[in-house]
């Protein structure tokens, strides 16, 4: 009788372990995804160093931004998800001027990693960090002399957000992000609030 009870207990334990594994393997935050995003962007500059020299401008500019992303996530523990993402974002009206200087952010490419915690099986809170590259045009007018050029500015980003599954394949997310493209003593940074929709394969 004791052998029978132990056998039943062993089968039950294996069944529970198998169910837990199946539930973990079927988590929606596990695998590739593709999506679109958009929202608000603010660029802040103060005498930034550029390929044309120091640009004498001090101001901030607000605009909209839209883009797309490719991602991959992996659930590495019961409530822990890690992932990587590549994206391209385009400001809607990024150019601004002051004191004869025009700064024109054209696009940004971001490569980042994230780590998150599942507060529910369908809700992920996460932090993000990684590399950012912005393509920026600069124009400086000084009397009768005009200098213009375009350069890639390397930087870094940090942020965080929440992602929520709305179907078994589609999720929405809201994220805040800070990026810094400063060089030398000048300032060139960016704030973003992005709303995204992803399809998970």
Coarse structural class: mainly beta
- How would you state the average pLDDT, rounded? 89
Q: Spatial order of the strands in the main sheet?
A: 1-4-5-7-8-9-10-11
Flag low-confidence runs.
Answer: 1-25
Query: N- to C-terminal separation?
Result: 48 Å
Number of strands: 11
Strand proportion: over 45%
Binned, the helix content reads 10-25%
How many strands, which pairing sense, and closed or not: the largest β-sheet? 8 strands, antiparallel, barrel
Shape: elongated
Number of DSSP helical runs = 1
H/E element sequence? HEEEEEEEEEEE
Radius of gyration: 23 Å
Structure characterization notes:
With 201 residues, the chain is mainly beta. The protein contains one helix and eleven strands, in the order αβββββββββββ. The strands form two sheets. Strands 1-4-5-7-8-9-10-11 form an eight-stranded antiparallel β-barrel. A hairpin with a 2-residue loop joins strand 8 and strand 9 (145-165). It is elongated. The relative contact order is 0.20.
């Amino acid at each position: 009788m004791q052998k029978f009870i132990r056998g039943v207990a062993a089968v039950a334990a294996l069944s529970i372990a198998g169910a837990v594994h199946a539930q973990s393997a079927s988590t929606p935050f596990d695998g590739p995804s593709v999506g679109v995003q958009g929202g608000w962007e603010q660029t802040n500059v103060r005498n930034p160093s550029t390929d044309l020299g120091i640009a004498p401008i001090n101001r901030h500019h607000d605009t909209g931004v839209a883009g797309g992303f490719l991602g991959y996530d992996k659930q590495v523990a019961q409530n822990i998800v890690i992932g990587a993402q590549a994206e391209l974002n385009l400001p809607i009206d990024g150019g601004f001027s002051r004191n004869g200087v025009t700064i024109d952010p054209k696009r940004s490419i971001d490569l980042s990693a994230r780590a998150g915690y599942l507060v529910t099986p369908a809700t992920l809170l996460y932090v993000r960090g990684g590399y950012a590259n912005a393509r920026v045009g600069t124009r400086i007018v000084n009397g009768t002399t005009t200098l213009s050029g375009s350069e890639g500015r390397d930087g870094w980003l940090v942020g965080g957000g929440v992602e929520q599954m709305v179907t078994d394949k589609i999720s929405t997310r809201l994220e805040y992000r800070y990026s810094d493209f400063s060089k030398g003593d000048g300032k060139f940074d960016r704030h973003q609030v992005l709303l995204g929709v992803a399809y998970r394969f």
